[in-house]
Amino acid sequence: MRSLEALTREASALAQGQAVWSADETEVARQMQICNGCRYCEGFCAVFPAMTRRLVFGQAELHYLANLCHNCGACLHACQYAPPHEFAINVPQAMARLRGQTYGDYAWPPALGALYRRNGATLAVALTLAIAGFLAAAVASNGPLWGGGLGGSFYAVFPHHLLVSLFAPVFLFAVLALGLGVRRFWRELRPVTSGQPASAPAAAEAVHDVLRLKYLDGGHGQGCPNEDDAYTLWRRRFHHFTFYGFAACLLATALGTLYHYAFDLPAPYDLPSLPKLLGAAGGFSLLVGTAGLWRLNRRRDPQHGDAAQKPMDLGFIALLFLTSASGLALWLGRSTPALALLLCLHLGAVMALFVTLPYGKFAHGVFRTAALLRHAVEKRQPNPVGLGSD
After folding, report:
1. Which of 158, 151, 105, 112 lies closest to 135, judged by CA?
2. CB-count burial class (<10 Å; 0-12, 13-18, 19+) for 361
3. Given 98, 154, 277, 355, which is the most exposed site by the fewest CB atoms within 10 A?
4. Mean pLDDT in the chain?
5. What is the dihedral sign for C-alpha 43, 45, 46, 48?
6. How far apart are alpha carbons 287 and 349 in whole angstroms?
7. Does residue 388 have a pLDDT over 50?
8. What kind and span of H or E run contains 225?
9. pLDDT in tens, 239-261
């Protein structure tokens, strides 16, 4: 139950027309005030240099810092004020909780922000199977679900125009929802991060940091702790497998679209065509990355993050794994009687991924990229505090 003090504070803020802070915002502000006096972790990641440029923390600043945090956990094991100290400083956990709140706060449309709390592994698998089952029923109503005579052609099962009409609106909505959400986030961050526009050098630095996952190196290049205080680079490596595998699959799809419309070369494609090379490499990379991230997530120290977000994390990992595994299975089984069934399963996984994309863990990459870009802009401006270092 919420304390009488917290309720009184909220009532007073509302009466004065001030913004009401959540418990997670209040906790992050408390911890940042203490960390700002210590500064032992200043070289660990982007959070602490950005923190030292402030003496007070408003809501926008807190949202900015929470999305700069990569949840690596290194600062927790280095902190002299970590639990069981009475200050109870746990920056990774506090930031993770607030970061989860920001996903819902900036969601578009706002009414769907609550989906972040319900998006779990069970839902991901159930949605995949439900969509795949619907597609399989549609195929079975028009012919055999298991059998040959399709010549390895996907379009013999589902016409190309039908697939486009099903998937294009869902994908475009996901892009629109994420775009509008991050635009609101950007507009809130810009005034509190110097207000300056993004320059080419700042953009280049942000892209470099994103592509390298720079802040998963623990600040010293040895990696971040996972299930204990030992450093490991495997979380960073599996993130790389996942990110670049997803990017390769997306590029393969884009190239396939170009082949289809510009060169009148419909799928499926065989080796050594570029779409197939990218798709196969990307699918295998995604399979390795998601399997590794699932294992690390299940073994991770609960003090490193927010337990309430674990279902959402695992749900996104499960969807990526199902998408890559079913895609590779479809490739290997294209010439078998299982083609139609495998295609339904793969399309079900892809559709489930697109449907949940704006309201799942994928959002963290989009918001974190925006925060890193604002950090790269801000660090190039004079320090408004004039204390410490950048």
Report:
1. 158
2. buried
3. 277
4. 90
5. negative
6. 14
7. no
8. strand 224-225
9. 999 999 999 999 999 999 999 89
Contact present, 73 and 58 (Cβ < 8 Å): no
Contact 117, 308 (CB under 8 A): yes
52-102 pLDDT, tens digit each? 999 999 999 999 999 999 999 999 999 999 999 999 999 999 999 999 999
pLDDT in tens, 353-373: 999 999 989 999 999 999 999
Cα four-point dihedral sign 265, 268, 274, 278: positive
Tokens of 388: 């410490």
CB 309 within 8 A of CB 96: yes
Report the alpha-carbon distance of residue 58 to residue 26 in Å, rounded.
Answer: 10
pTM of the entire predicted model: 0.90
How many Cα atoms within 13 Å fall on the side-chain side of residue 209? 24
CB contact at 8 A, 342 and 326: yes
The amino acid at residue 342 is L
| C-alpha to C-alpha distance for 376 and 369, rounded to whole angstroms | 11
In angstroms, the first-to-last Cα distance of the chain is 41
Host H or E run for residue 231: strand 231-232
Amino acid at 158: F
Cβ contacts of 342 within 8 Å, gap of 6 or more: 326, 329, 330, 333, 334
Selection from 116, 122, 244, 118 nearest residue 178 by Cα: 116
